Amino acid sequence: MTASETLTKQIVNHHLTAFGNNDLTEIMKDYTEESVVLTPDGALKGLAAIRKFFADYFVTIPTGSAFEMKQLLVAGNAAYILWTSESNIAKIPLGTDSFFLEGDKIRLHTVAAYILAN
Fold first, then answer.
1. CA R_g for the chain
2. Half-sphere exposure of residue 16: CA atoms within 13 angstroms, side-chain side
């Protein structure tokens, strides 16, 4: 594994741990004002928009929800994850994220999930 891949994996693991803990302060450390999150509802740019996105997502997948990482692939400064989750609010039989880093920050993040309300 290259130094770039090691750093990418560390940042993604930090992101996943913060997400699992619904720790908005910690998750936002992975982004900058120039970061963009692409979602099925559109592009979100900047810390305020990204913060709101995660705050809303934490309602669907609160701390303690079932979460299974199906796949984690890292290539250079890019990572891809495939996952499933279930909470009292929703069942997500398929979720996927891609992360593209600049240095130790997520510059571009794509998110897609098939969400079924419980």
1. 14
2. 22
Q: What is the pLDDT of residues 90-110, one digit of tens each?
A: 999 999 999 999 999 999 999
CATH number of the domain that residue 24 is part of: 3.10.450.50
Which two tokens mark 89?
A: 């609010």
Is 27 strand, coil or helix?
helix
Question: How many whole angstroms separate alpha carbon 76 and alpha carbon 70?
Answer: 20
| Total count of residues recorded for the chain | 118
* Tally of domains in the chain: 1
> What residues make up the domain containing 66?
3-117
Q: Which two tokens stand for residue 47?
A: 């810390």
Has this prediction a pTM greater than 0.85? yes
Q: What is the pLDDT of residues 24-62, one digit of tens each?
A: 999 999 999 999 999 999 999 999 999 999 999 999 999
